[in-house]
Amino acid sequence: MNEPRSPALSEPPSAAPIVLLVGSPNVGKSSLFNALTGGHARVGNYPGITVERLSGQARVPTNTGARSVRVTDVPGTHSLAARSRDERVALDSILGANGEPQPALVVCVVDATQLGRSSYLLLSVAELGVPLVVAVNMIDEARDAPPDVAELERALGVPCVVTDARRGRGVDALRATIARGLEDPRRCDLEIDYPPALVADREELRQHLPEPWRGDDRRERALALWALASLDEDDELDDAPRALREAAIRVRARHADRDLDREIATGRWAAIERLVSRVTRRDDPHPQKRRGTERADRLLLHPVWGFAIFVALMLALFQSLFSWSEPAIQLIESGVSALQGALRAALPAGLVRDFASEGVVGGVGNVIVFLPQILLLFLLLGLLEDSGYMARVAYLMDRVMRSLGLHGRAFVPMLSGFACAVPAILATRTMERQRDRTLTMLVIPLMTCSARLPVYTLIIAALLPPGEVLGLSVAPLALTSMYVLSMVVSLAAAGILGRTVVRGRRMPLLLELPPYRVPQPRAVLRMTWRRTMSFVREAGTTILACTVVLWALLTFPRSETAPVVAAAVPAAAAAAAAPAPATGAREPAAAPAIERTWGGKLGKALEPALEPLGFDWRIGVGLIGAFAAREVFVSTMALVYGLDEVDDEALPLRERLRLERRPDGTPRYRALTGISLMVFFAFAAQCMSTLATVRRETGGWRWPAFMLGYMTTLAWVASFLVYQVGTSLGF
Questions:
Q1: pTM, whole model, 2 decimals?
Q2: What number of CA atoms fall less than 13 Å from residue 620's CA on the CB side?
Q3: Contacts of 653 by beta carbon, 8 Å cutoff, 6+ apart
Q4: What is the third-level CATH fold of 7-183?
Q5: Quick count: other Cβ atoms within 10 Å of Cβ 157?
Q6: Helix (H/G/I), strand (E/B), else coil: 666
Q7: pLDDT tens profile 93-108
Q8: Are strands 472-473 and 468-469 parallel, antiparallel or unpaired?
Q9: Domain map of the chain by residue range?
Q10: Strand duo 42-45 + 52-62: pairing
Q11: Disulfide: which of 1, 365, 393, 529 matches 336 by Cβ 3.0-4.6 Å?
Q12: pLDDT digit string (tens) for 358-414?
């Protein structure tokens, strides 16, 4: 850990004082942050790492009116012990270390319904001797037996406030308490009794603290305990003071027969037990509610029924993606087609018209058309997460992951991979061991991210036949199957890689199951909006840039003469109605102009490797574009068929694919082609951002190159088997 900033280096007096919000996961800290700041947060990263932080302005009352403070939401953590840089964020923020500004006040948020559990972090913060305020949140859920906050305040010696952040109750009182805490800071005076041997070890480490770390006795004792709990041969805190690290390793080696971590935790839990018994009642005020939670968990965590319920929920979710979003999708498709038609009518024929209508509007528009489904996906997943159910899914999956040698905590970032692989890979930093992080990073891209959703939706709508299977609609059943397939294959890959390429010992799972709650609409909608806008920004930048490049590849070199176009979509409907040509009919000698472009030649070069999968050169061009970002496949295919048109009629892309015919009148793409293509996309590492993130997280190109190689091979082999076996069976 770098040296904490001294008071002389803190923020200038004219700057708004910094108030930190710290707390364990699931105590409602983020809801309280939104209530204090009005939800107007600025998103950034901590210096040198990629952990996201939220900060915003809040107004607190004073004798002369009000003043502004800067509130920072510190990522949730169970303690201040840290063996990786990301775990150290909370300690750095509290102490003003590693470039973090010195806070004026720390607000520790605890759960009124589980005071003991959330007090472990509270005592860890209190030991540092920082100015402290305690917010006892979720008081509404403990209304039958709330903790005695006045007694809690007397026991700790710092101001304590009851809040209900979800409904905004107590927030004004917290603002007033923050204002008083800034004027008259108070520090916790609760003492923790540690075993004499541990006290001696702590005092030994105090002698090796660097000079800028020193201060009052409480701070030095707390930092010595932090070093004893965090520094060893396996930690990744490379910037920790060398003398302090060596001293901590010597102490641990000398006391190999003692569990120092357990001794520290036992001392704190004993203090928590005394504190909780002093401020809470012993009888259970919610026997019916607790029994209801237990009954629900017995069902949702059941090794058989739990999985069945999870699959049923996913099936219902994807059914809603198709049925609820279809009107909005058709509206956007009509708008894109109308805009393309208007541009064709307004602009003279030539490069400018083609670029505007096909390159920009057609390329980006055919990706934006799936925005309703993506928005709905984020919304429904947010509701499941906020209700407490997704934590149960992670616990449920740990039973499988343990047998595969993968850390149970890995499933949390793997679930995040349903949204995007990049933040999911960054989320692996909360895992202690590099082996677990590397293995999780290698399998996260196999999870079906939101970028694959436009591709799957396009293929399902265009190539899979409508109807029902076993009473279930084909579309949601196919999409659910792709998500389930991604989970099964990612877990299987983890089991294989964990026993071969990335070997190591599995660590036990530490996962908290939050109580079931009614999702908070504002928080879910805010999260949904933020993730959706991230997709829109990508469509306006990365996808647009890729589309322009691909438009150029599919346009140049331009032919001087207009050749005969054999694959015109508007004519395809008539071709389908006409008698089929004789078997063995060949395409016209004059190839379509787009085949002679640079992009067409690239697709033709790939065609021999793709034909066994059921793909042609057009799909090959789409796969080239998809390496920039998976959803670019959709805009690339729109370019291929938009530039291949012979008249000005603009059909939606899924209609073009459905109507596309070979010279003999048979469909160019059949349902088996679509299934093969979806399987290829499920396994291929077609995302340069993901590969770049893995390179940054692993410090080199070794693991990204391995990921690209094994996923591409897996995708080709799986797609080959699907198409060839399906063809041999007559599909």
A1: 0.59
A2: 21
A3: 366, 458, 462, 634, 637, 638, 641
A4: Rossmann fold (3.40.50)
A5: 13
A6: coil
A7: 888 877 788 899 999 9
A8: antiparallel
A9: 7-183, 200-258, 541-578+588-728
A10: antiparallel
A11: 365
A12: 778 876 776 677 688 778 877 887 888 778 787 787 778 776 777 776 766 677 678
